[in-house]
Amino acid sequence: MRPGGPVPGAPGTKAKSFGPSLKRLVRRLAPEKFAVGVIIALVITAVVLNTLGPYLLGKATNLVFDGFIGKQLPAGITKEQAVQALRDSGDNTKADMLGAMNVVPGVGVDFSAVGRVLAIVLALYVAASLFGWLQGYLLNLVINRTVKRLRDEVEQKLHRLPLSYFDTSPRGDVLSRVTNDVDNVSQSLQQTISQLLTSLFTVVGILIMMFWISPLLAVIALLTVPAAIIVTAQIAKRSKPHFIDQWRYTGEVNASVEEAYTGHEIISAFGRAREVGKEFDERNNKLYNASFKAQFISGLIMPSIMFLGNVNFVFIALVGGLRVATGNLSLGDVQAFIQYSRQFSQPLTQIGAMANLMQSGVASAERIFEILDAPEQSPDPKEQVVQPVDRGRVEFDAVSFGYEPDQPIIERLSLTADPGNVIAIVGPTGAGKTTLVNLLMRFYELDSGSISIDDVDITTISRDHLRSRIGMVLQDTWLFKGTIKENIAYGNPEASDEEILEAARAAYVDRFVHALPNGYDTVIDEEGGGVSAGEKQLITIARAFLAKPSILVLDEATSSVDTRTESLVQHATAALRQDRTSFVIAHRLSTIRDADLIVVMEKGQIVEFGTHTRLLEDRGAYYRLYNAQFAEAV
């Protein structure tokens, strides 16, 4: 029985705002704050070294240009005399330019000085590369450790979520959040943090150098910054909804694929492949459109900023040339400034390019945070009753429960099961049979009333302790990829080989396992491939046997077992049920004729109870169910 209700994070759910989600994502780096501090220091050092490079190269250019001009001047005169000669001839522009240069008439290029400057620049760039490599290595460690903690937290959260969360959430969407969205967050952090830190500090460093060289040119360079910020903000604002849709539709596509894969046989049997394919195509087209719009719109940021940078470059080159001609700047300073202006626009462009990655990463982070923020099942009591559940007396006292507040499923139900009793629960679909067992296992919490085991309220017992004493065999078998022996041992990891074999013999697994290629070491997959449906059920029953529970729950456990195997299992469970309480939920009434008590439920109420013979004599609800299965069938 599955409750209805809205799916957390389903289409139509509004995403959190970008800013708070980004801050929350960044705060997850807090445990790595020392390493992050080292990374920032390395980034700053590398940026400073790289920023000094163009300035020193400008000095080298001045040395070459000064030597070239000095070689053309007559030897034996001073620079002042050469400048005065130019003024006397009426060429004041050249005189101003020569006056600002460091030339010695008649002396050519000092190649040794140029070589020393170039060697210093090379050393700076090599050191900057080493620091950059080291910060990249540390950042890789920080990001991977952070994402590992995030995965661990999501995994632990899934175990703390109530069963109702999974009943109302598409399995494929949950899997997509845990896998695809976490991976996307990892990639976004990897590709953006280092680049953003480097770009931001580079902008600061370059601004300092540009104002150092020429405040006028620096102001001209800054004119494009407001325009770049406005363009980036407007484009990012329009791309954000499409990134949210992209990862939402990714979850829907995964859910569609997962459903089609697990139900492949049924889909093929009913010839519904075309309809399933059509539904997949619709969801895939939504994903395609959302992804295209997100990438296309966010992709406009980089060319827009590059255009603004090129316009800015033209103005800097024009004004810089005039400043050199008037002697207010040297040629090397203009060369260095032009390099800085190109480098200044580059980190702004990179920041814009990172915006789409951050939008995508934050959209995925929001989907993960929705899982982490989902209401958890009520915590176990701090002071727990450690009395072991060893007799198995179960009492339901005025139990009421509903998946929705205004839709009760069970109302004021009372029932007592003594140790060693076999309690069969029957009734039409939706009567509340499986819900009753879910309440006993504390998969759901009661609305009112209480359930006690051996006179101990189950809410005073930890869930782990409670469930460790209850063996459960469901209609839907679950096996993991591993050997048959490992699947049986899942009921008690500490069991010896002899105990595993004993449980296998009791469940009649031993009868068919020797016909398999590797016996108990035969590997089966998650879907139980290699064994039949009945054999899978026998393995799960052997698993329950091995757990040696005080209470046994069989929820249609023999529904997929053939008649002969069913008879064998009934004999085996009879021995297992000795001095243990057993709850048997059954639609096949032939499996519960020998039950100590048969409870008939309708609409969450016990309408009658008694033995098989007595209930038939009463000609009530059980009598009608029995005739529906046997008398009318005959």
UniProtKB/TrEMBL annotation:
Gene3D superfamilies: ABC transporter type 1, transmembrane domain (1.20.1560.10), P-loop containing nucleotide triphosphate hydrolases (3.40.50.300). Residues 38-360 form the ABC transmembrane type-1 domain. It comes from the Bacteria. Residues 394-628 form the ABC transporter domain. The chain crosses the membrane at residues 34-57, 117-143, 196-213, 219-236, 296-322. One of its GO terms (cellular component) is plasma membrane. The keyword Protein biosynthesis does not apply. Keywords: ATP-binding, Membrane, Nucleotide-binding, Transmembrane, Transmembrane helix, Transport. It is found in: Cell membrane. Pfam families: ABC_membrane, ABC_tran. One of its GO terms (molecular function) is ATP hydrolysis activity. It is a multi-pass membrane protein. Belongs to the ABC transporter superfamily. Lipid exporter (TC 3.A.1.106) family. ABC transporter involved in fatty acid import. Transmembrane domains (TMD) form a pore in the membrane and the ATP-binding domain (NBD) is responsible for energy generation. This is Fatty acid ABC transporter ATP-binding/permease protein. It comes from Nocardia camponoti.
